[in-house]
Amino acid sequence: MNxxxxxxxxxxxxxxxxxxxxxxxxxxxxxxxxxxxxLNELMAVNTNTVSDQNGEFxxxxxxxxxxxxxxxxxxxxxxDSKSELSKWAFPDVQIAxxxxxxxxxxxxxxxxxxxxxxxxxxxGETILLLTPELNVIDQVKYIxxxxxIGETFVEKSFARMPNGTGAFSWQLPSFNGENISNx
Length: 183
Known about the structure:
Blueprint: H1 2-18, E1 37-43, E2 60-65, E3 71-72, E4 77-79, E5 88-89, E6 94-95, E7 100-104, E8 124-130, E9 136-143, E10 148-149, E11 152-153, E12 157-161, E13 167-171
Antiparallel strand pairs: 1-2, 1-12, 2-7, 3-6, 4-5, 4-8, 8-9, 10-11, 12-13
């Protein structure tokens, strides 16, 4: 009887442990887009698509507000590190209902505007959007962008289709605008 209890206990422990994931496990399941504030598009390789206010072609992340209300983002966070959830905090900025907000992910916080203290990896990574309480609102994992047609590298963004609610796919960039399905 004691052997049976021991075997059952070990089986249960094995089952529980096999379903656990590390905090920084790259295979963590993505959070499904919910009505509300979402990560909508990102561009990790931007050499000539759109420039910031200083004329620099930097990486960028676009948010979309699916709600019928304006959201104040003061204290919300964006990060590319599951072990550093509060890596970059939004200042006192608002995103209007059914609107977009783009953040430059260039590691240059001395520039005016919204510039994170990290860059996006061209090799792929996970980006997280969090509440002031550090609860994950949305996350997206993208892979290396290597789209070459002939001998020309084609810059693409990783965007939700349909806009604001769908799954992500590589698309022609639609910076600060509706994502439209394209090759």
